[in-house]
Design goal:
It contains no helices and 30 strands. It is globular and about 55 Å long. Strand 29 and strand 30 form a beta hairpin. It has a domain of 106 residues: YVTN repeat-like/Quinoprotein amine dehydrogenase (Methylamine Dehydrogenase, Chain H). By secondary structure, it is mainly β. It is 0% helix and 50% strand. The strands form seven sheets. Strands 14-15-16-17-18-19 form a six-stranded antiparallel beta sheet, with no helix packed on it. A four-stranded antiparallel beta sheet has the order 1-30-29-28, with no helix packed on it. A four-stranded antiparallel beta sheet has the order 2-3-4-5, with no helix packed on it.
C-alpha cells in the first residue's frame, strides 16, 4: 500500500444524517451539491447551505451545467432544478411515481428522467416522452455529443436519435436485467451493468457485443478514463479496469489492483476529468485514487466509515467529494501544499 502524502490538506468533513444519493460540482458558483435522503440539497462552497427541495427523499441527482444549477428527483414524484443560491423550480411532477434516475447533457441542456416504461425528455422545444420500452426503464443516458439517448430495460437497450425522436429506436438486445448505462468518451462503446453481476458492452459502429463477468457482487457504478482506454467498475475488492484500446476487452483479462489489504468491496467509482485516474469508494468508507496504467494507488485520509454511495470530481480535478449511505461526507483537496 502506498502511503498518502503528508502534505495533502486534511479533508473537509460534514454530517448530513441521511443517505447521499448524488454529488456534483457546479463550476459557475464553484460549489459542490449533495442530494440527501432527507429531501434536501446541501450546497458546499466557502459556506454550507441547506435547501429544502422534496417532501420525501431525494433519490436522484444530476448536474445542469448549461443553466448553472443542480437537478434532483424525489419519491414525491417531483423533478426540480435548484440553483446554488437556493431557488427551486419544478420541471416535472408525476404524482405517485418515484424519480430514481436523472441525466442531463452539459451542452444541449436536455434532461432525461426514466419513469415506468418511458423516458421523459425535458429542455427542448417541448417536453417529449420516449417509449414505451418492453419493461421499466432502469436508466437513461445521453451520448457524449448529445445526439442520442439510450434507455436500459430488461432484455437490452434502446437508443433514440434525438434529431428524429419519432423514428423507431435502435435496439441492442441481450438477455437479462440491465441496470445502469455508460457511454465511452467519443461514443464508440456503450456499457451496461447487469443484475446478473456482469457488464455487457456494445461496439456501436457494428453492433458487436461482449460480456464481462466474474464479479462477486452487483456492479452499481462505472467510469471511463477520459481517453476511453479503460472502463472501471465497482462490484469487486479493488479496481477492476477493462482495457478498451483497439476493439475492446474481448478475450482480454481486466487490470486489477488495490491499495487495501482487506477484502473490501468497491461500491462507487468516478473518473478524473483530465487524467487517467479513477477514484474508488469502498464499503467501509475508505477512498482511494488509482492509476490503471501504472497500477499506482493514492489512499486518502480516512474521513468516512460507512459504504460510499456517491463520488464526484471538480472539473479541474483538484477536489474530490464523497458521500456515504449514512450521510457522512467529505471533500478532499488533492493539491499538494
Amino acid at each position: 500500500m502506498t502511503a498518502a502524502p503528508k502534505n495533502l490538506a486534511p479533508p473537509r468533513e460534514f454530517r448530513f444524517d441521511a443517505y447521499v444519493s448524488g454529488i456534483g460540482f457546479e463550476p459557475k458558483s464553484n460549489t459542490f451539491g449533495f442530494a440527501v435522503g432527507d429531501g434536501t440539497l446541501r450546497v458546499i462552497g466557502e459556506v454550507e447551505k441547506t435547501i429544502a427541495v422534496h417532501k420525501g427523499a431525494a433519490l436522484s441527482f444530476a448536474l445542469d451545467i448549461k443553466n448553472g444549477a443542480f437537478l434532483t428527483g424525489g419519491d414525491d414524484g417531483r423533478l426540480c432544478r435548484v440553483t446554488p443560491d437556493g431557488a427551486v423550480t419544478e420541471l416535472l411532477v408525476l404524482k405517485g411515481r418515484w424519480i430514481e434516475r436523472l441525466s442531463a447533457h452539459p451542452v444541449t441542456g436536455l434532461i432525461a428522467a426514466p419513469v415506468g416504461k418511458e423516458i421523459h425528455l425535458l429542455g427542448g422545444a417541448e417536453p417529449l416522452r420516449l417509449g414505451p420500452c418492453p419493461t421499466t426503464v432502469s436508466d437513461a443516458v445521453f451520448s457524449p455529443d448529445g445526439s442520442r439517448i439510450a434507455g436500459a430495460h430488461y432484455g437490452g437497450v434502446m437508443i433514440w436519435n434525438l434529431q428524429q425522436p419519432a423514428t423507431p429506436p435502435r435496439k441492442l438486445p441481450w438477455k437479462g436485467s440491465h441496470l445502469y448505462l455508460s457511454y465511452a468518451p467519443g461514443g464508440r462503446f456503450l456499457a451496461s451493468s447487469m443484475q446478473e453481476m456482469a457488464l455487457h458492452c456494445w461496439r456501436l459502429a457494428d453492433g458487436s457485443d461482449m460480456q464481462m463477468s466474474g464479479y462477486p457482487a452487483k456492479v452499481k457504478a462505472m467510469a471511463w478514463t477520459p481517453d476511453a482506454k479503460f472502463l472501471v467498475s465497482s462490484g469487486a475488492p479493488g479496481f477492476v479496469c477493462w482495457p478498451f484500446v483497439g476493439k475492446g476487452p474481448q478475450g482480454k483479462p481486466p487490470v486489477e489492483f488495490s491499495g487495501r489489504k482487506e477484502d473490501v468491496m468497491v461500491t462507487m467509482v468516478a473518473a478524473h476529468p483530465k487524467a487517467s485516474m479513477i477514484a474508488a469508494g469502498y464499503a467501509d468508507g475508505h477512498v482511494e485514487v488509482g492509476d490503471p496504467e501504472q497500477k499506482k494507488i493514492l489512499p486518502l485520509a480516512v474521513a468516512l466509515t460507512a459504504p460510499v454511495s456517491a463520488l464526484a470530481w471538480s472539473p479541474d480535478g483538484r477536489f474530490l467529494a464523497a458521500g456515504t449511505e449514512t450521510g457522512e461526507a467529505a471533500i478532499y483537496d488533492l493539491q499538494l501544499r
